[in-house]
Write a structure and sequence with these properties.
Pfam families: NBD_C, SBD_N. The chain is an alpha/beta fold. It has 14 helices and 20 strands. The chain is 34% helix and 22% strand.
């Protein structure tokens, strides 16, 4: 690659945790990648240096249609101007979305104005996260079977995703799920081509495209399918700029195809060093995994956040008081964990409003005290939290077990530049994740995400 303007692959994460996952996959594959916190200007691109892949972290998953379209028009125009040929709209591996918020049809329609290939590819499944797409239906791990193996659930029967507080999954067939958002006539290339290889994949796609579908869904059942799928996407995008929708398996497919390699073998990663100063964790996620991680965070002073008080008429005063408690703990050399109370699951203020309030609290804290390592739990909380900081980019440093990336913040302000940030979705990370941010951990290998729930 000859610099940013020659980057073939670009991606937009519809939340920040997902965007850092994609960043991690590309960086571990040896691709020079920068994740920008908004569409980059020329100065930021110059600071980033030569890049093989360009990412933008956003919050479209928490946006209504009009706001999504506005943001993605800016993203699409900037990525197209930089010469991107394969534009990846990165969604959660469980396709969190709904007609009223995070609408994937709106994203596709908007980006396709800049990446007009007749093939709009939707990649279902991310086997490394135990997400599997079979005949168009999405399955995901959640909990364990009596023998200890991960329990695999059809998504509309998943113990967490079927009752998601913002976008509960009522349908496991991704074609029907997306049809509810306005995306009609989705073709399917199912998994059965995998044993026959490239010719079978090309033949299956040609048959599906003959029906002139608005988009094509590709099953992904195991990692062995990814290199061939990546080669197909690269070939098609070389002919005409193409938009692909899916989880980080799109990035995996691209990286494996470029390398001409099979899925990487089990290998060790960079060790996460113990923190040199007090760690700050902000947990806005209500998932059972995050609750378990909070319970296991024995090294932290805990500051509970009442969701209703974060968003009511006296919210500013309440935020000031809670932020003062966090600041005091950090200044006294104690690790601090601020978390929203799980009672907010039953009624209470909208999750997006709570996430924005949590971001405001983070801004108050980092303005008052230098923090060298920060953890944020929750997709929407992570998105709003990073937007609240005066920074412009994230680069990958290492992987924590359970599919959590530890990144370096890039900012113009010295107090924020080089801060380490770990952003995690609700279900990600091991139970001891927050303790790992304090005490360090063995670096996770490229297959560590298989252990994630």
């Amino acid at each position: 690659m000859n610099g940013p303007a020659a980057a073939f692959y670009g991606f937009y994460g519809d939340d920040f945790t997902g965007a850092t996952d994609t960043l991690a996959h590309l960086a571990r594959a040896g691709l020079r990648t920068m994740l920008f916190l908004r569409a980059p200007d020329d100065v930021q691109l110059a600071l980033a240096g030569e890049l093989d892949a360009i990412g933008i972290a956003g919050a479209a998953r928490a946006m209504p249609a009009a706001r999504m379209a506005q943001e993605l028009r800016e993203v699409g125009a900037r990525m197209a101007s930089l010469g991107v040929r394969l534009m990846h709209y990165k969604v959660c591996s469980t396709f969190d979305s709904a007609p009223h918020i995070g609408n994937i049809c709106v994203a596709l329609d908007t980006l396709r104005g800049y990446f007009p290939h007749p093939l709009a590819a939707i990649v279902g499944g991310q086997p490394g996260l135990q997400r599997y797409c079979v005949f168009g239906h999405l399955f995901a791990a959640g909990g364990a079977e009596p023998g200890g193996l991960p329990a695999i659930h059809r998504l509309d029967r998943h113990p967490t995703m079927s009752s998601h507080p913002v976008s509960p999954m009522r349908e496991s067939d991704l074609r029907l799920h997306l049809r509810q958002q306005g995306l009609e006539n989705i073709g399917l290339v199912d998994w059965r081509w995998r044993d026959a290889g490239a010719s079978a994949l090309a033949s299956s796609l040609a048959t599906v495209l003959a029906g002139r579908p608005r988009a094509v869904l590709f099953d992904v059942l195991d990692d062995a399918q990814l290199p061939e799928l990546g080669r197909l996407l690269i070939d098609q995008a070389t002919r005409q700029p193409l938009c692909a929708i899916g989880p980080s398996s799109v990035a995996q497919a691209y990286a494996l195809a470029r390398a001409g390699a099979a899925p990487p073998a089990h290998s060790s990663g960079t060790r996460i060093a113990p923190a040199r100063s007090p760690v700050l964790v902000l947990a806005g996620s209500l998932s059972p995994m995050t609750a378990a991680q909070i319970e296991a965070a024995h090294s932290f002073t805990r500051i509970e956040l009442a969701p209703a008080r974060l968003t009511d008429a006296g919210a500013s005063d309440y935020l000031d008081r809670q932020a003062a408690s966090v600041i005091a703990a950090l200044r006294e050399g104690r690790h601090a964990l601020a978390y929203t109370h799980r009672a907010s699951e039953a009624g209470g203020p909208p999750p997006g409003a709570v996430a924005q309030a949590c971001a405001a609290l983070l801004r108050r804290v980092v303005t008052a005290v230098r923090v060298e390592r920060i953890g944020v739990a929750g997709g929407d909380t992570s998105s709003f939290a990073m937007q609240a900081l005066d920074a412009w980019g994230l680069s990958f440093q290492a992987s924590l077990p359970g599919n959590v990336a530890l990144c370096r913040l890039h900012a113009g302000e010295a107090r924020l530049d080089a801060v380490e940030v770990a952003l995690k979705g609700g279900q990600m990370g091991e139970i001891g994740l927050f303790e790992q941010l304090v005490h360090g951990a063995p670096g996770a290998n490229s297959d560590a995400s298989r252990r994630a729930g």
